[in-house]
Amino acid sequence: MRKHWENCIANFDNEVDSFVGDYFADASRRVLLVAAAGFDPRSRRVSEMLAGALGNRLSAVFIREERTGASDALIKRADENETALKAIVPDCTIFRVDVFADDGAPVGGSRIVSLLGQHPVAEEVTDVILDLSALSIGIGFPAARMLLEDCEATSNRAFHLMIVSNPEMDDRISSVPSSRAGSVKGFSPQVDAEGQGLAQVWIPQLARGRASALTQIGAAIQRRYKICPLLPFPARNPRRADDLLAEYRTELVNEWEVDPRDVVYASERNPLDCYRTLSTLKTRFDRTMKGTYDPRMVLSPVGSKVLAAGALMAAIEHDMAVQYLETESYLFDHPEPTLADLPDMTVHLVLSGPLYASYDKSTSPE
Length: 366
Description:
The protein is α/β, with parallel strands linked by helices. It has 2 domains: 3-166 and 338-353, 3-Layer(aba) Sandwich (Rossmann fold), CATH 3.40.50; 171-332, Rossmann fold (3-Layer(aba) Sandwich). Helices cover 37% and strands 26% of the residues. The chain is built from 12 helices and 14 strands. The protein has helices spanning 14-23, 45-54, 72-88, 108-118, 137-152, 167-172, 211-219, 240-247, 249-255, 271-289, 305-318, 357-363; strands spanning 9-12, 31-36, 58-66, 92-98, 127-131, 158-165, 173-183, 197-204, 224-227, 230-232, 264-266, 293-300, 321-332, 345-352. Strands 1-14-6-5-2-3-4 form a 7-stranded mixed sheet, with helices on both faces. A 5-stranded mixed sheet has the order 7-13-12-8-9. The chain has a two-stranded parallel ribbon with strand order 10-11.
């Protein structure tokens, strides 16, 4: 158990810049950054921040997610971001990952795990940072689990998550989902067919424009005991949760038949709030169903990467399933920033490493 996650080191916005400037000023630190090299304008932010503090002590693996349905405009933007990232971090490797196999099956998670396995982290690296900002769930979650476990096996290496989030920009990015819902690589715990009756609790993260995808995901989850939709609250836009409830009214009332008391809320800004909320739910369901059903929580993070990071932590810590529908292509309305745009929000978490050595020692049993 990772008890230190209950009080995980977290920094937000300007605090992130301060932490990076102070922590990485130590000349002994060598950092490997794993991030996306896609069309998203947030792809460069973390690389620029780290390069300014680390210089030639920073190396990177940039992941280019290849989708056959990508438009020429988005491919051009991804090419521009890739060129810029190579200039920002000269010591870098580009992984080109085909998200789908020839038969249309989503295989991006398996392929990124294979690629990372073929390129192990160098021994001199003291910190591994995964930038989730522009990575898809199908790629980012398997990479996060693999890198975290690798760092935990090395006592002197830290693992960080960084996210540049902008919910208003997320609303301008729409997606065309594939037709095959399935489990994310590494997040499909086995079910004991001979044990107690299985009761699956599905927690879909509601996000604008994702109703069709969530409907397909939900249809693929058998033996559902309860549905607990996850909404962003508090949020930068105070009405965001209300707007989502209005958008999903048909699904919530007619299709899923959700009890209003089962709606779950978590902060749009702090992934630890989502992690703690899901952990509490897991504890309560386990206690309630003990001796009657075998409870299994299934997460479907399809919106904000901040909430997705909290879901990632809960899924790893409590062995939860993650059900997802991969995206065939994206549409980006108004990709250029405007004066009306709100600033990006930056989040940084330290999930493992020497910074927790004294904490883990003080909380270990006698």
